[in-house]
Target: 4-hydroxybenzoate 3-monooxygenase
Amino acid sequence: MRTQVVIVGAGPSGLLLGQLLYKAGIDNIILERQTGEYVLGRIRAGVLEQVAVDLLDRAGVGSRMHEEGLPHHGIELLFKGERHRIDLTGLSGGKSVLVYGQTEVTRDLMEVRAAEGLTTIYEASNVSLHDFDSERPRVRYTKNGQEHEIECDFIAGCDGFHGVSRASVPASAIHNYEKVYPFGWLGLLSDTPPVSDELIYANTPRGFALCSMRSLTRSRYYLQVPLTDKVESWSDEAFWNELRLRLDAEARERLVTGPSLEKSIAPLRSFVAEPMRFGRLFLAGDAAHIVPPTGAKGLNLAASDVGYLSESITEYYDEKSQAGIDTYSQRCLSRIWKAERFSWWFTSLMHRFPAEGEFGQKIQEAELEYLVKSVAASTSLAENYVGLPMK
Ligand code: RFL
Ligand code: PHB
Model:
């Protein structure tokens, strides 16, 4: 088998890259370890920046997103029992974000790929990458007990944090930067109306909480929990009781509870691998970097990476130019480190860090008060939350 680009991973970055390349007339095959249903069952991101919305439009998958997505013009910060609104649109020169779940983005991309008759090989095991330091890279995999090999011009490693692509690079050629946080997020999805029209990020003595949503009838809530907690020991009732204790009186009153559709614990991590290109292998999305979810940046960075990558590969074929490919890593990393900084800062501001002691706590309170009172400080939050430009 031969194709121009082999994409490893059918998460949002692999699927979006496949569609952007297809639109540019470039053949590609996606190899995915799991089934499509499994990929759709992972409940993750909920907030899209305009940059991601634009790329999904360019890929031709924007229609349901515009019909069903909820534009958000502000967020609320809750601390010391009171909520303070950050006017994202007013402070960012008119920008907003769109609440539309990663599951829906993935479903839209899967459907259009199937409708165009493009090849996605699900349940591909033992994926291995070869000769990406030459002009003839190859990718091998096993499907239904049979081994296969695909020859290609380029390999895109879109296989997430635990994928094979980053692991295939010699240790001497890559540098990893990492910070692990001493807590995780316990998330719960339920068919209940959201507690508020806008997202609430809460810093409370009992830990961080986030009230988010997927639609006007489906809510997504998160609680900061110790890394030692097991999801099995959190009953729905225990979750709702704890969430109530982390809300202000009005939200507590308004909260509608119901059975969970999904519940899971995710550890929080900041991670960047440099560079993101190794000969003819490119890393994109969570394969190259992780942000703690507080800034809602992970999916958005995955989208901007594949935006740069699809442009670079298109330029290579159309204009016989390597310029885009040669600067791919540097352009991505410049945007990634700014999102890493913002996600680390917002995580540090909103969570409880017992190891930081009373002094750390007081500094956090002072910064929160400054943030909601100072136009300069809240403008910086708004500008980063709605997303920095790609160029
Ligand atoms: P994914 O989604 O992990 O997809 C990678 C795919 O590769 C497959 N794979 C392999 N395939 C073949 N061979 C192998 N050896 C393979 N190894 C792995 C996997 O099965 C999978 O299908 O990475 P991708 O595409 O780069 O997308 C990244 C996003 O999923 C991620 O950044 C976001 O979900 C992060 N995130 C958020 N991002 C936002 O922009 N806004 C948010 O509001 C937001 N909230 C979140 C989040 C992530 C969370 N968790 C659980 C980590 C909230 C949470 C709780
Ligand atoms: C979500 O809805 O899953 C979500 C929203 C905002 C975040 C993180 C997650 O910062």
